[in-house]
Amino acid sequence: MVHEKKILRLNMQAFDASWHLKYAYTHLKENWSPAPWKKELMYFVIDWLSGSDEIIAQTSGSTGQPKKIRLQKKFMEVSARMTLNFFGLTPGDKVLLCLPIRYIAAKMMLVRAFVGKLDLYSVEPKLYPYSEWTPELDFAAMTPAQAKKLLETGEGTVFMNRIKKLLLGGSALPSLLEEKLQTLKTQVWHSYGMTETMSHIALRKVNGRDRTDGFVPLPGILLSQNSEGCLRITAPHLGIDNMETHDVVERSGDGSFRVLGRTDNVINSGGVKLFPEQIEQKLAKWISAPFYLVAQPDNLLGERPLLRIESDPWPESRVEELRQQIKLHLEKFEVPKEILFVKTFRRTDSGKVVRER
Predict the structure, then answer these.
(1) Distance from chain centroid for Cα 129
(2) Long-range contacts of range 292-297, CB-CB < 8 Å, 24 or more positions apart?
(3) What is the 3-state composition of the chain as percent helix, strand, coil, each rounded to the nearest 5?
(4) Buried b vs exposed e over 2-19: b needs ≥16 C-beta within 10 Å?
């Protein structure tokens, strides 16, 4: 790589690679103690501008147990260009980085800024990523949890409407949040992807007249399924050949697909395979706290769903109200055998809830 030809426009300033390397090395070597999120950003800049052809990244578990993998920079650049082309981003467009740089979504935002000569605005990656100093933005990427928090306040909603195009990813999109997103003038997409694919390989338009029910693969992405219905991905331009995921999908004739759930989470109740993720979408209207369903042993059916809610115990009247809604809106085999309250769920480093049985 030739450092001098790489320009990064960060927080209203544009410098070449040699300046960024000197700046990062100085701060890190002399212990100026920048905020942890800024330090991580500096380390990634150093890694990206180094002579190595690879980047080390941590997977989330979509294709197996979480692990560290090596990603080829040349394929990351191809992925960046795919996103730039899809969203029509051109040099000078203003984009927001509000995700932890240790994860692929944030890494790819920085790569897109390098490749597309974008004006990148970096703010602290927190659950409420509101910023009053950033200008109107052409593009931003967030988690559904961040979008939910912003929409809970007036200032956050105004901030969201100052973003022309918004990409949500990292987890499922709750139905209540999707309803709220319909009120925004911002164009919103939900992404399907993982570390192994260097960010998204399929997108679903969430709001507007062109909204879709399923994820639409990006150009050049070839999809198939294994015997269990799990998605397989082939993308020669990204160095991906028949990669199997643990996501069970339902494909449509137009090439789009819906994610039913993960094979790891399936509950086999009386011979009926239940995907907790689908049942959780139904329950989201009546449970505002974090929750999930897991399999519980059952003498008659083999397994039954168990509902865990992250909360102090509810009053019995509220629990009974929830039980009534469950009976009205869930199928017989979907009804949880038991409801348990847990003060704090265990979570991964990326903030995803660990489904403990």
Answers:
(1) 15
(2) 292/345, 292/353, 292/355, 293/267, 293/336, 294/265, 294/267, 294/355, 294/356, 294/357, 295/267, 295/268, 295/357, 296/337, 296/338, 296/357
(3) 30, 30, 35
(4) eeeebebbbeeeeeebee
Q: Are the C-beta atoms of 109 and 89 separated by less than 8 Å?
A: no
Residue 4 confidence (pLDDT):
42
Q: Tell me: pLDDT of 175 over 50.
A: yes
Please give the Cα distance from 331 to 293 (Å, whole number): 15
pTM: 0.86
Least confident range from 118-122, 136-140, 296-300: namely: 296-300
Please, what are the domains in the chain? 53-261 (3.40.50.12780), 266-342 (3.30.300.30)
Average pLDDT over residues 181-186: 96
Average pLDDT over residues 253-279: 91
